[in-house]
User: Fold this.
Amino acid sequence: MSFQGCYKDGSMCIPCTRRCLCISAISLLMVGIIVVIIVLVVTVGIPPSTTVNRLCITTSNLTGFLCDDRETCIPASQVCDQRRNCANGEDEQESLCSDLPNSLPGHLIFYCSKPKFWIYADKRCNGMNDCGDCSDETATWANCPPCGPQWWSCTMVVFHAYCACIPRRFCKDGIQHCSDWSDEYICRREAV
Assistant:
């Protein structure tokens, strides 16, 4: 007994047309392309996401960190301070704050003259002795501008909270802040 579309042993035979061959060939080609893509991704790796440039200058002219909204610029010292200063909290991400200062972008930090010591970049050239050795105010790599109009320039400051400039409010206050006493004899409280 013979059935059309079947083999003599009774198993089914699927007749294949040209259309069937085309669909099979296209399917095999697609599977091949997918396999090639997977092999390339495994071999070469997934391309890294482009890093976002987060350098910005705050409204008070300080080095800052640009938030995800691309509008908010917070001072460098507000990054990894355990407070969410950016709306999405990107300034407190573990990848950013896990290994200070090594995990921070270079523009956010300033290394003092002693390499183990660092400060946030917005604390550089602020008139205060943040490094403890005045390297953030007087070192050549700090690149600080001369004292501003609200400050008096000293050759050497006795009071170690300041380095090369003292606030004019200390002028003629009866306390020596400069080694040459210029803060008591020459300096005026208001800028000329």
Q: What stands out?
A: Strands lie at 55-57, 63-66, 73-75, 109-111, 118-120, 151-153, 165-167. The CA atoms of residues 78 and 101 lie 14 Å apart. The radius of gyration is 34 Å.
